[in-house]
TrEMBL record:
Keywords tagged on the record: Membrane, Transmembrane, Transmembrane helix
Keyword Transmembrane helix: yes
Organism of this sequence: Thermococcus waiotapuensis
Transmembrane region(s): 553-573
Gene3D superfamilies: 1.50.10.20
Highest taxon, organism lineage: Archaea
Name assigned to this protein: Squalene cyclase C-terminal domain-containing protein
Keyword flag Membrane: yes
Length: 579
């Protein structure tokens, strides 16, 4: 995903050349389980353009060995490679000739990685690898010109099935995927599942040919895709469509709290719509978490759970509780009294805590003698900048976090302390890199969290017209947003895949002639794509990908036929004896 995000910065260099470009948040990354199972579901309900989009994303994030990890750049594993194989088999039936080589290469990779006992790295690896090998063998897309490949896949499948029959699952998820591999419908029917595992069970039964109904809603793309595959219901399809991002399904690339921090900056408010649904997944088990995370709940228009015991909180956290209560129109006198009572000669422990408490008290119009804390902040600022670390020889302020200074800048602006304000702004200038991001400490790592915190303080202080602020905003926009062109038949730096008569008919760069095509797939940009979009012209169609019936069905027919032959033989022998 690093290469996908890095291209955002490159695109901005020539974004002015894009026709009808749209700047959109780009904060998700494709994952193999979500995208692969979405492809399976979309294929089953006939949404072939979504099948092609998902398959092209899988092609884009595969390893050089035609294998897959959970996401781009992660270690390849059998389970994820198996999922991708199953998805690409469906895609190949819509665009014959596009994915066949990768399907065969990936199947060979599975055999190469199989352990001598027939397993792969873990139980689900083994179960899904068995399912994928079975599909390749049953499909029309097995390359018969690769010497010995069919026999190798058969042997690998038989060894995997044997291992699964000898080794039981340790949990329900393993059991479901084992039942798919072994075709054990009866075991699946007897399982009682809750939550997303109910979608897994429904998918497994539907995959084995059973009719299934579901009433639950599911929160992840993978579970929603399984529910759609199992039921074909429109509500699941609509939800899965909503979960698609630029042609793929996946997860947030950034931390939820990072995005919410950025959403406090003017012009980035729309990120709340992306991040807020994930907020409740963050557990609040400690009192300090309730204080620190409270403002995130306010950003998401939700009522926060506030701490009741302040003895374990830092002074700035108690001040934050007071600030949040004020925003909720709740009394906060208890928090103010606690802070004033626990001050130490006009300060609250250290530079940052004192700056934060003073800002909140002043913002709440609390009547207080601010002279001592302001003197403390001024004197400590001078001390940090003038004194040196005896061990390193560096100024003490080199190791002080940047947000300490930006918080102090808010206070100095509040009280008209222009000399101290200018000093802190100079420190911020030192800490801002050429790309606009702020470092955590002097010449250290940078990132979204630190930059968003500094910008929030500058914005709070009314310093959003400064070059510091504007450059920081530009950094966030470059990292979190992408210029994406309007989908059309002519797009600079795009590759168009042409599908005609159910067959991949080649590609073109920059433009496409749609005449006579089933449709085309636009990949933008050509290298390291940001968005992939399939466009129907005459309409995409799909052939059956299977060269033979499902193995479970064949086994049943053979068993029944064998029983009839055995019965016939017994009757014939008995008749011969009587005669």
């Amino acid at each position: 995903m690093k290469r996908i995000l890095a291209v955002v910065l490159i695109l901005l260099a020539y974004s002015s050349t894009l026709a009808s470009a749209e700047i959109r948040p780009y904060v998700y990354e494709p994952t193999v389980p979500d995208t692969a199972f979405a492809v399976l579901a979309m294929y089953k309900v006939g949404e072939y353009e979504k099948v092609l989009e998902g398959c092209e994303w899988l092609m884009a994030i595969r390893t050089p060995f035609d294998s897959w990890g959970y996401a781009y750049g992660e270690d390849h594993e059998a389970k994820y490679t198996a999922m991708a194989i199953m998805a690409l088999i469906r895609g190949e039936s819509v665009a014959r000739g596009r994915y066949g080589d990768v399907i065969n290469s990936a199947a060979y990779w599975l055999i190469y990685k199989q352990n001598p006992d027939g397993s792969w790295d873990d139980y689900i690896d083994t179960a899904l690898a068995a399912v994928a090998l079975k599909e390749v063998l049953q499909s029309k897309y097995l390359n018969t010109e690769m010497p010995g490949l069919r026999e190798q896949l058969k042997k690998g499948l038989n060894r995997a099935i044997g291992w699964l029959e000898l080794n039981g699952p340790q949990n329900d998820e393993e059991r479901i995927f084992r039942d798919i591999a072994l075709g054990d419908k009866n075991d699946l029917k007897g399982l009682k599942m809750e939550g997303e595992l109910e979608a897994y069970r429904a998918f497994a039964l539907a995959y084995l040919g059973e009719k299934v109904s579901l009433s639950e809603d599911f929160s992840t793309p993978m579970a929603t895709a399984m529910a759609l595959y199992a039921t074909g219901e429109e509500r699941y399809k609509e939800k899965l469509m909503e979960m698609e991002h630029f042609g793929f399904w996946g997860k947030l690339h950034y931390r939820v709290l990072d995005l919410l921090d950025v959403s406090r900056i003017k012009g980035f408010e729309e990120l709340r719509g992306t991040a807020c649904p994930y907020l409740e997944e963050i557990p609040l088990t400690e009192e300090w978490q309730k204080a620190v995370y409270a403002h995130y709940y306010l950003l998401c228009s939700r009522r926060p759970e506030l701490p009741e015991n302040y003895t374990s909180l830092l002074p700035w956290q108690v001040a934050e509780v007071a600030r949040v209560k004020a925003l909720l129109n709740k009394p906060y006198s208890g928090e103010v009294e606690y802070l004033i009572t626990n001050s130490e000669n006009g300060s609250w422990g250290d530079f940052y805590n004192t700056a934060y408490v003073v800002w909140v008290l002043k913002d709440l119009n609390v009547s207080y003698d601010y002279e001592k804390p302001l003197s403390y902040l001024s004197e400590n600022l001078t001390w940090m900048l003038s004194e040196k670390n005896p061990e390193t020889g560096d100024p003490l302020y080199y190791s002080t976090p940047t947000y300490y200074f930006s918080q102090a800048a808010v206070v100095f602006k509040q009280f008209g302390m222009n000399g101290e304000l200018n000093v802190t702004l100079n420190v911020l200038r030192e800490r801002q890199y050429p790309n606009g991001a702020f470092s955590y400490t002097h010449q250290s790592v940078t990132g979204i969290t630190t930059t968003a915190s500094i910008l929030w303080n500058l914005q709070t202080a009314g310093l959003d017209n400064t070059d510091l602020y504007k450059r920081g905003v530009d950094f966030l926009r470059r990292v979190l947003y992408a210029d994406l062109p309007e989908i059309g038949q002519e797009v600079q730096n795009a590759t168009f895949l042409m599908i005609k008569g159910g067959t991949y008919a080649g590609n073109s760069t920059g433009r496409v002639n749609p005449n006579g095509l089933d449709g085309y797939v636009m990949i933008y940009p050509s290298d390291n794509p940001l968005t992939i979009k399939a466009v129907e012209v005459g309409g995409f169609t799909a052939e059956s990908p299977w060269a033979q019936e499902k193995t479970e069905y064949v086994r049943v027919v053979i068993v029944i036929a064998g029983l009839f032959l055995a019965m016939y033989a017994v009757i014939w022998i008995e008749n011969r004896k009587r005669s």
